[in-house]
Write a structure and sequence with these properties.
alpha+beta, four-stranded mixed beta sheet
Amino acid sequence: MLRAWILPMLLVLSGSAVATGQIFTGNPGTAAALLLAFLALAGVNSPLIFPRSIGARDAQRRSAVDGRPVVFWRPGCKYCIRLRIRLGRSARQLHWVNIWRDPAGAAAVRAANDGNETVPTVVVAGRPRTNPDPEWVREQLSPSA
């Protein structure tokens, strides 16, 4: 879990250093804009946005047991972020697989998308759907999930 925080923390520290440099050169407006940009990048890449990722094999095993969809995603993907935000609280009911951390997950996405690592790819009952509408994903959740 600590590894998930390394990139966001590096972005915050880098943004702070760049902004400080801009302030010392007399550009407080540029400093503020750059700091906000680095903070936004850190937020997008933070584990706070996405539920904790698990491995593809574990996600597929759990999905077979509970019927919940598996979402293959990667940090920084605007479509993944859109899906996550539009799903709201129901996103926690899905099994999330970060394809940049799980080679088996990346392979599953390539197999579903003609060799491309196109995300988000959502798998429901063994059937993949690439960049689905968030409402469709929400409908795939069983009432007991």
